[in-house]
RNA sequence: GCCCCCAUCGUCUAGCGGCCCAGGACGUGGCCCUCUCAAGGCCAAAACAGGGGUUCGAUUCCCCUUGGGGGCACCA
């Protein structure tokens, strides 16, 4: 197979705007994008909005925003136009009708006048008899003349594909090889609904053909209707694109697919399968891209850190894995941390800023630039910066008195330690790591305390929290005046013990 | 009920007949470093679903069973 690149491909991502943009969509779009960029081909975004009943107005915007956020952009699409416009299927109704007519005239499709009620009845019967649930072929037996007359008379009808009764069809998936299915289990599927709009099966095949798509990379939920698609393409006598069906994502336990309900409940645990949520949770697009790229694809037996440009270079259809993959959010945290640490400090500062501001802090550049390197190895998401470093932007901190008590120390001893530390620091011209650490270590030793005991008290006093960036660097950022003020406060806080 | 797909550590995976008493990563446990928390370094435990074949030789090829997933809509 020479699909790995040399020939420029034309690929597409064709979602339906019926809901939120999911990880699976992100991955499908990503792989398509990677192949297009790698080969110097084109990536097309096509909106499959042929079902007005399930249409969600905001869905397309969320999709576009989410994909762009990931760094995936397209050469042709509803918002950017292109030579094969329109790229919204609802605007291509006539095109599909024309092709449906072609099949009807060629005897490869027929009008069906059966009502939904009758079809439901037939299905019920089949279910009871434990038969395959297929259309019973009533209208297939109509003469073309009669069918035409009834349609002419305005009788509501759909267009069905006339699947061959005998034999079988073999379609080929790049990852799975040939898939052969008996024609008798392939339904006379509806191509055009009674409202005149095409169904996915016809619309997608027509558009892929018209838009010159060379590789169809889509979710494996299409595998079961793949034979039908093969029939449609062959009925038209078209050249078949290469088909690649991606594995599905399973819930973290690996048992089954995630339900809608589970998906929305995830957010309570600080994770989500929706791209937009991940962004708001403080995940980096780099982290998410790296993570999803490796769900169903691999490069070799050791490399796992990839940026988008890396992936453009290294992605390969041949290394795709057809088995289902469980979503592993702890691995997302790992990749996100990796990418946070690999970001230049100023870039990280730029990205952290909105999260700090979103938490209500007024963020000045000077402080932010000093703080960012201190938290870079300590945060997993950008949102973690709030808990880790919010106090830097606070005028006053409010430590819990009991936290100010050093390990294995009494409140009185702790207050005394703070008083002594105050004296030491007050005598220093500047407070930074170099000038501060040794004098305080000496103080600890003099008082018979471990460095950890003394530093722990000071950490809580100065930062207001027991987990913080390194003490001396933090004090340097906060500045001598505020540091002294906060340490002076220790005695006050400890002299009025909390009601025990 | 019918059709299709999938099957290596808990999870993501490498492996395309001998290099594998199976390699990497996440997570987990331990140690080191250390002012907290991280980051970083080192070490450890942890898998070829089961049964038949094919072969001198199967994780790798074939079949069956089992398990998992998808579909059987005037949804995509």
Q: What is the β-strand count?
A: 11
Q: Which regions have little confidence, pLDDT < 50, spanning 5+ residues? A: none
Relative strand content: 5-15%
Radius of gyration: 32 Å
Q: What structural class do you assign from the helix and strand content?
A: mainly alpha
Mean pLDDT: 94
The major pleated sheet works out as: 3 strands, antiparallel
Q: What is the compact description of this entry?
A:
The chain has 20 helices and 11 strands. By secondary structure, it is mainly alpha-helical. It starts with 9 loop residues before the first strand and ends in a 5-residue tail after the last helix.
General description of the model:
- The protein is mainly alpha-helical and 500 residues long.
- The protein is 45% helix and 9% strand.
- It is built from 20 helices and eleven strands.
- The strands form five sheets. Strands 3-4-7 form a three-stranded antiparallel sheet. Strands 1-2 form a two-stranded parallel sheet. Strands 5-6 form a two-stranded antiparallel sheet.
- α1 packs across α11 (308-314), α6 (200-210) crosses α7 (226-236) and α14 (365-375) runs antiparallel to α19.
- The chain is elongated and about 105 Å long.
- The mean pLDDT is 94.
- The protein binds one RNA strand of 76 nucleotides through α4, β6, α6, β11 and α12.
Structural descriptors:
three-stranded antiparallel sheet, two-stranded parallel ribbon, 20 helices, RNA-binding, 500 residues, mainly alpha, elongated
């Amino acid at each position: 197979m020479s699909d790995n690149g040399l020939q420029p491909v034309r690929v597409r991502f064709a979602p339906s705007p019926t809901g939120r943009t999911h990880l699976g969509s992100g991955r499908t779009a990503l792989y398509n994008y990677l192949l297009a960029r790698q080969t110097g081909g084109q990536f097309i975004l096509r909106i499959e909005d042929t079902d007005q009943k399930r249409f969600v107005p905001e869905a397309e915007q969320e999709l576009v925003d989410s994909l762009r956020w990931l760094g995936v952009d397209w050469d042709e699409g509803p918002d950017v136009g292109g030579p094969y416009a329109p790229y919204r299927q609802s605007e291509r109704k006539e095109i599909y009708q024309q092709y449906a007519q072609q099949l009807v005239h060629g005897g490869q499709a027929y009008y069906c006048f059966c009502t939904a009620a009758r079809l439901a009845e037939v299905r019920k019967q089949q279910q009871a008899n434990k038969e395959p649930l297929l259309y019973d072929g009533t209208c297939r037996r109509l003469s073309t003349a009669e069918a035409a007359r009834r349609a002419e008379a305005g009788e509501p009808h759909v267009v069905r594909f006339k699947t061959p009764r005998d034999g079988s069809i073999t379609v080929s998936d790049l990852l799975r090889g040939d898939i052969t299915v008996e024609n008798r289990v392939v339904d006379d599927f509806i191509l055009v609904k009674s409202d005149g709009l095409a169904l996915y099966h016809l619309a997608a095949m027509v558009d892929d053909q018209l838009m010159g798509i060379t590789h169809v990379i889509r979710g494996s939920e299409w595998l079961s209707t793949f034979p039908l698609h093969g029939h449609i393409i062959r009925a038209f006598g078209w050249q078949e694109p290469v088909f690649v069906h991606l594995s599905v994502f399973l819930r973290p336990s690996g048992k089954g697919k995630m339900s809608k309900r589970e998906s929305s409940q995830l957010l309570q645990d600080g994770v989500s399968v929706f791209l937009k949520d991940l962004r708001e949770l403080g995940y980096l697009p780099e982290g998410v891209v790296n993570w999803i790229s490796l769900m169903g694809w691999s490069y070799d037996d050791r490399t796992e850190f990839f940026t988008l440009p890396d992936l453009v270079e290294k992605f390969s259809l041949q290394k795709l894995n057809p088995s289902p993959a469980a979503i592993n959010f702890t691995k997302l945290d790992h990749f996100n941390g990796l990418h946070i640490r690999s970001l230049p400090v100023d870039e990280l500062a730029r990205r952290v800023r909105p999260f700090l501001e979103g938490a209500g802090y007024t963020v000045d550049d000077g402080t932010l630039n000093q703080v960012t390197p201190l938290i870079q190895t300590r945060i997993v998401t950008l949102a973690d910066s709030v808990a880790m470093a919010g106090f830097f932007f606070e005028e006053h901190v409010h430590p819990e008195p009991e936290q100010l008590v050093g390990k294995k120390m009494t409140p009185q001893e702790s207050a005394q330690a703070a008083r002594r530390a105050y004296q030491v620091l007050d005598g220093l011209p500047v407070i930074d790591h170099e000038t501060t650490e040794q004098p305080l270590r000496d103080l600890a030793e003099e008082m018979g305390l471990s460095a950890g005991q003394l530093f722990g008290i000071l950490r809580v006093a100065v930062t207001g929290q027991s987990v913080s960036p390194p003490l001396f660097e933090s004090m340097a950022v906060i500045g001598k005046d505020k540091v002294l003020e906060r340490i002076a406060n220790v005695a006050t806080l400890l002299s009025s013990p909390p009601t025990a």
